[in-house]
Specification:
247 residues; mainly alpha; two-stranded antiparallel ribbon; 5 strands; 46% helix
Length: 247
């Protein structure tokens, strides 16, 4: 399993929550970054600094039938924009390899491999009704709450500018953090917070959360579990479990 698999699984959770809560307002006050045009090379620079590069040459044995099913919603037009006949078709396309690549910043080849790993581990499955990939919320919750800090541990690094995560993120703002405590951040030139650098699950995380408030909340809660103290982990676990129950 790769750390980017966590980003992809939580994106699937976010999409399902959105579909089930259709019509509800978006989470208010969840941004922790500048809204101007993107700083040049932000995500790419972060990948270089952390020594991460998108490897499309990694090969993993995959199930052809699963790959075909996942690719059905992709456009046959190649580089042209996707066209949709209705909202349902648009929503389904967001679960396709191309749609997930666009929303997470992970390459299409890596999305395919990531989904296959999640299928094999029982962390995701194809929905029998519409054939789109869905996160196995129960299994994912067990992994995040009980295993994430052992599988993908993280320690705060140098102070830098970035997007607040864990207890510093809006989803947990004011809940347990003491005044003067250093905020954990994902390094990002457009972030509004100065804090201790935490390596995100993938270098594309800062861009991915700008597009999705629920994904931001899910990732921040997951970080609180993997880097927090017992009280922080317990609170984040309860909140994360509550969000996963919606799926």
């Amino acid at each position: 399993m790769k750390s980017q698999d966590i980003l992809l699984l939580l994106k699937l959770v976010s999409l399902e929550i959105r579909d089930r809560e259709a019509g509800r307002p978006r989470i208010d006050g969840w941004q922790d970054w500048e809204l101007e045009s993107a700083a040049p090379g932000g995500s790419a620079l972060l990948a270089q600094e952390l020594g991460w590069e998108d490897r499309s040459d990694v090969h993993l044995k995959a199930s052809p039938s699963a790959m075909v099913t996942l690719s059905r919603a992709e456009s046959p037009r190649g580089e042209g924009e996707l066209e949709y006949s209705d909202a349902g078709e648009r929503n389904k396309a967001e679960f396709s390899v191309r749609g997930l690549a666009d929303s997470t910043g992970i390459s299409k080849s890596q999305v395919s491999l990531s989904l296959q790993r999640c299928f094999e581990a029982g962390l995701a499955k194809l929905d029998r009704r519409d054939g789109v990939p869905r996160a196995n919320a129960k299994a994912l919750g067990e992994l995040l709450i009980h295993g994430i800090r052992y599988v993908f541990p993280a320690k705060p690094g140098e102070v830098t500018r970035g997007i607040a995560t864990s207890l510093g993120a809006p989803v947990l703002e004011g809940k347990l953090m003491s005044a003067g405590e250093i905020v954990p951040v994902w390094p990002d030139p457009r972030g509004n917070t100065k804090g201790a650098a935490i390596i995100p699950f993938a270098p594309s995380v800062p861009n991915a959360v700008r597009k999705d408030s629920r994904l931001y909340a899910l990732l921040a809660l997951t970080d609180a579990i993997r880097i927090g103290q017992p009280r922080e982990r317990n609170l984040a676990s309860e909140m994360l479990e509550s969000m996963l129950k919606v799926t």
